[in-house]
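Reopening: Glycosyltransferase still failing for me.
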Amino acid sequence: MKTAKFWCLSMGDMQILPGSRYRPSVKKPIWIIVLVLFVCVFLICAYIYPLRSSTACYVFPSRGCKVIADQLPPLPAREYTDDEIASHAVIRDILNTPPVSQNPKIAFMFLTPGSLPFEKLWDKFFQGHEGKFSVYVHASKTKPVHVSRYFVNRDIRSSQVVWGKISMIDAERRLLANALQDLDNQQFVLLSDSCVPLFNFDYIFHYLVHTNISFVDSFRDPGPHGNGRYSEHMLPEVEIKDFRKGAQWFSMKRQHADIVVADHLYCSKFQDFCQPGFEGKNCIADEHYLPTFFKIVDPGGIANWSVTHVDWSERKWHPKSYKAQDVTYGLLKNITVWCYYNCNLHNKAYTIFIP
Ligand SMILES: *[C@@H]1O[C@H](CO)[C@@H](O)[C@H](O)[C@H]1NC(C)=O
Ligand SMILES: *[C@@H]1O[C@H](CO)[C@@H](O)[C@H](O)[C@H]1NC(C)=O
Ligand SMILES: *[C@@H]1O[C@H](CO)[C@@H](O)[C@H](O)[C@H]1NC(C)=O
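Support: Ran it again with your exact input. Result attached.
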């Protein structure tokens, strides 16, 4: 009873009497309130941010620890090497600087052993479109004899090309470097001596000039002729998840031509570790370098398909080659019509040249 009274008394006293006398007893509730507030704030914080630290996990073991596995940040991205940091910086700047040209042209770059069998056909194709194109010829075996004025004096200094080896890439880079000298060249089309145009010049010109992507064939092939050719010697720059395959013939926008010519880092990996016979594999550099390079540095900038039609249906080392009796009106119609419907509708493959 005494306690109850005392309690009543002290409550009554508090209301009447001046605070000074009772200060010590007022301090206690404030401390408690502060403490409770602090604990509340801590609990609210811990509830809202339950998994940011392992302390939270300690405080709420039953709730937090289970979720922690799902919410942990992904493993930190690999630390890039100095060369990669430098390379990515240069590439990003080039990609962010769109080229300007008052008089855009298409560079037609021919990779051939010698004379071009279809030069007369190309002559007809180019006729009347002077100023909208430029021609470059890389003849790796014999000096070509030219029959078209568009090809005369268009040979660039060339070197031998060994199938499957990096010398093929070297030749492509040599063509690109020569074609880049002309600031008006906006798309760089790589063609073989057996390519023929399937559409007229205007059609191809507008198609290529009004695009902001490159047409580089690229796909993931998990089989022995794709990822099976990958070598771990390419690490850390080239990981198997980025390893791609694709036919060699491309059409590339100017910025991409720039970064291909500037690239030493990734190219050297393919030079050293992607060649026929290395580690008992048959790595063909020209089928993997560009698709893999673009997968790493600008995956959204390429179409993943090429503007050249190649028939791999025979599943051999080389694509189907068309003999004279194969090349009928029906065949050409087939390829172009197939393309007309498929390319525009499904964005699959556009057929402009036949290598
Ligand atoms: C190309 O242009 C389109 C439309 O202007 C844009 O959405 C796209 O991001 C561009 N692509 C590249 C690789 O610049
Ligand atoms: C090409 O493939 C890459 C993945 O390898 C993808 O990121 C990119 O968006 C694709 N490009 C187009 C135009 O679909
Ligand atoms: C045209 O394509 C169809 C279907 O792909 C094929 O059956 C036919 O043989 C082709 N014709 C020629 C002339 O290639």
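The pocket of 2-acetamido-2-deoxy-beta-D-glucopyranose (ligand 3) is lined by residues 328, 330-331, 334 (CB under 6 Å). If you still see a failure, please send the error message rather than a screenshot.
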